[in-house]
């Protein structure tokens, strides 16, 4: 099971026309198998291929590498947290209905995660309930922050509480990267900003007492948690030496929450994968590829789907078949509260 894949509808309405203001993304299908993701001010965001919107292409590629299940979530540029709440809800519902349709057409091959208008926590809670109770989604994908709010913001607590009550999984994905205004070259928002965003999200949930107050909340962080696992000692030390700054909302040592949340495996490096398995626990790391995007786990030649290749390549102490099976499938089912036998033969 690949917990980190993104999907878009093939088309959607022109959102600038629909809402009367700009800032949204649309797909410009300039070729049968390719489209440009364009901002509605005409600027180019990213070129994407057919597998971004076509379920059959995704299943064919999954079959080639014997990947049973893709967990589908939207592309973070579609979160629309900056838009008017009722419009972000409208976008979310369109995307969530699409993902639910993909899952219902291929229920053994896809698991769905919704998106929420997080800038309005009440609307977000209502849509979260709809996602789980009406659409059958296993949870939602949210950003590492919401405009000026970090995930510790009291306003957002009700969303996490609702997720806990519903048993909904939460996938946290970096977006709107911190420091982007300084990082004008070298793709640094993706290489430096995104790892910082993931650590920002985890530290916000830890320091803000969200994990402490919601012991049954099931969170998975993208990209191995970014810079968090490499700096958890520093985070603990800060909590210890400046409790006046760090321990104001949660007295528990940050590293005591290791093992409480899941992470994907997308770290691109054997030493880093060993590190996150050591830090988070071998029950808490899930195969995740960021399919179909270029920073994902793709083959060097042809950028073919290669989810799980790093896990398969691991050797040395601890890399038993049992561990591989956990990382490639059963850990994800634990995070999603999904029955593995619904997806593959045990
Ligand atoms: Zn991603």
TrEMBL record:
The domain of life for this entry's organism is: Eukaryota
Q: Name one GO molecular function term.
A: metal ion binding
Q: Does the keyword Iron-sulfur apply?
A: no
One Gene Ontology term, aspect cellular component: cytosol
What name goes with this protein?
2-amino-3-carboxymuconate-6-semialdehyde decarboxylase
PANTHER family membership: 2-AMINO-3-CARBOXYLMUCONATE-6-SEMIALDEHYDE DECARBOXYLASE, 2-AMINO-3-CARBOXYMUCONATE-6-SEMIALDEHYDE DECARBOXYLASE
Q: Which family does it belong to?
A: Belongs to the metallo-dependent hydrolases superfamily. ACMSD family.
Q: Which SUPFAM superfamilies match?
A: Metallo-dependent hydrolases
- Subunit structure of this entry? Monomer.
- Return the broad EC class: lyase
Q: Which InterPro entries match?
A: ACMSD (IPR032465), Amidohydro-rel (IPR006680), Metal_Hydrolase (IPR032466)
Keywords, A to Z, come to: Decarboxylase, Lyase, Metal-binding, Zinc
Identify the residues that the record assigns to the Amidohydrolase-related domain, covering every copy. 2-332
Organism field: Cafeteria roenbergensis (Marine flagellate)
Which BP terms from GO are recorded? secondary metabolic process
Q: In which pathway does it act?
A: Secondary metabolite metabolism; quinolate metabolism
E.C. no: 4.1.1.45
Q: Taxonomic lineage per UniProt?
A: Eukaryota, Sar, Stramenopiles, Bigyra, Opalozoa
Which Pfam family name is an example for this entry?
A: Amidohydro_2
């Amino acid at each position: 099971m690949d917990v980190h894949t993104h999907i878009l509808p093939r088309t959607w309405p022109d959102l600038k026309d629909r809402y009367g203001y700009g800032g949204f993304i649309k797909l410009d299908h300039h070729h049968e198998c390719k489209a440009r993701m364009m901002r509605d001010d005409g600027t180019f965001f990213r070129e994407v291929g057919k597998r971004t919107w076509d379920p059959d292409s995704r299943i064919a590629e999954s079959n080639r590498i014997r990947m049973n299940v893709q967990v589908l979530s939207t592309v973070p540029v579609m979160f629309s947290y900056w838009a008017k709440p009722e419009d972000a809800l409208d976008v979310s519902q369109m995307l969530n209905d699409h993902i639910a349709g993909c899952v219902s057409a291929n229920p053994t091959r896809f698991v769905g995660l919704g998106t929420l208008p997080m800038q309005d926590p009440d609307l977000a809670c209502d849509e979260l309930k709809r996602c789980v109770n009406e659409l059958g989604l296993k949870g939602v994908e949210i950003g590492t922050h919401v405009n000026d709010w970090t995930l510790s913001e009291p306003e957002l607590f009700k969303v996490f509480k609702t997720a806990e009550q519903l048993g909904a999984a939460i996938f946290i994905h970096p977006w709107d990267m911190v420091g982007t205004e300084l990082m004008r070259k070298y793709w640094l928002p993706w290489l430096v900003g995104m790892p910082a965003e993931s650590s920002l999200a985890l530290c916000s949930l830890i320091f803000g007492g969200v994990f402490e107050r919601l012991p049954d909340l099931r969170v998975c962080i993208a990209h191995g948690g970014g810079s968090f696992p490499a700096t958890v000692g520093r985070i603990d030390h800060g909590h210890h030496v400046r409790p006046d700054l760090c321990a104001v909302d949660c007295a528990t040592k940050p590293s005591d929450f290791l093992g409480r949340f899941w992470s994907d495996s997308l770290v691109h490096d054997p030493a880093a994968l060993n590190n996150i398995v050591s830090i988070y626990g071998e029950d808490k790391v899930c195969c995740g590829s960021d399919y179909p995007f270029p920073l994902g786990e793709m083959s060097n030649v042809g950028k073919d789907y290669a989810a799980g290749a790093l896990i398969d390549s691991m050797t040395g102490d601890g890399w038993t078949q049992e561990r591989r099976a956990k990382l490639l499938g059963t850990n994800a089912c634990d995070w999603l509260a999904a029955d593995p036998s619904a997806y593959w033969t045990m």
